[in-house]
Amino acid sequence: MMLTLGIDLGTTKVAAVLYDPDASGAGRAVSTEHHAALPAAPGHAEQDGEKMYAAVLRLLAELPPRELGRVEAVGLTGQMHSVILWSGGELSPAVTWQDKRASAAGHLDEFRTLSGRPLADGFGAVTLAELARQGELERWRYAASPADWLATRLTGNPAPVTDPTFAASWGIFDPASGGWDLKAAAALGIPPGLLPPVVASGSIVGTTRNVPGIPDGIPVAAPFGDNQASVVGTAVELDRELFLTLGTGAQLSFVISPESAAGWTPPPAVELRPFLDGKLLAVTAPLCGGRAWAWLGGAVNNFLTSLGLESLPEKLLLDRLDALALEVDGESAPVVAPHFLGERHNPAEFGSITGITLENFTLPNLARGLAAGIVRNLGDSFPPEFYRNRERVVGSGNCVRFCGSIRREIERQFDLPLEIRSVREEAAVGAARLAARSVRKAG
To answer: In the structure, what pLDDT confidence band is assigned to residue 4 with cuts at 50, 70 and 90?
Structure first.
């Protein structure tokens, strides 16, 4: 029996799974919040990389030592778009995909013009360009995604590499050459030597060295973007499924051939991201997904405390809101557009509630309208004809698993059955699957 380890370095938590490719399933899965968020200026979103790494080590200590000692490959994934820098023993904060410092400084449109690319807040290239503008790049030698930095920690490699999925998430990847758009980088003031070399997805980038619980010399695969890894972790029929994830953010994805992509002009909210075996992943990724549902719970508790009443436990409140949403038909519910964090393609687009009457502004209707809006914010980005050859929606993320009103809206709006696979920690499983495939190919 072959075992591979998958690690997902996420925005709020770290997850690890032991995966048996011959049994096509995950064994032990563990996760923990890393609590790595740092106090930051308004519009800034930063995390402590060492806290994330400490969380990884805590998870490894929770896995069965005997099984962990038999691992034959390690696969990594994690939050996309984000960037972390280091030089010698000094490590910068990780600037995450939620960062908006460029638009707050009024530089985002300029960066788009200079680079000739549809950049967005939180993209690695935007973060680096803003740091360059502030004169804060000079002291750093290396830049990478947090997951790519984790690979250097596990292998002892001094310098990082990255794969096309992470490189593309930074906004200046050139798919034609398979490398960086150095002209765009130069226009943004990003030194080319700071950009990590791009290797093929799944490449073995080194072997483990001094990692507690894991023998030295175990192959480590290049980290793979968490969006793509979640698809790999849940897919049964890539060409017949839509993949919908609702976590902190949201993603709706489907696999597309380069030939199909060549005849389609994606709308501004859609990205064509690198995938495996020459294929692409068409993705829309609103910034506020499951977090929009949590927002409603927070708003209700704020109303209660403003009235001098006790707030309710978050899970109890969110479950009750879900039940209320399921009690109404939604025909008269207000229309909720949950752009509460802006959108990558339009940072100035914020949320709204419309269609309010004297009768329909009730909590059940508002909850139903929000559930519909969260799903609509995903589905409206793609023309309906793209769903015609798809047979099901594969759902993942806690908001899908635990929110019945969201599940109802997915099936209603896409007119397809929803399947929630038994796989847990989908992105970590996808990374483990890719690592297993890479080791078998190499062998």
So the answer is: very high
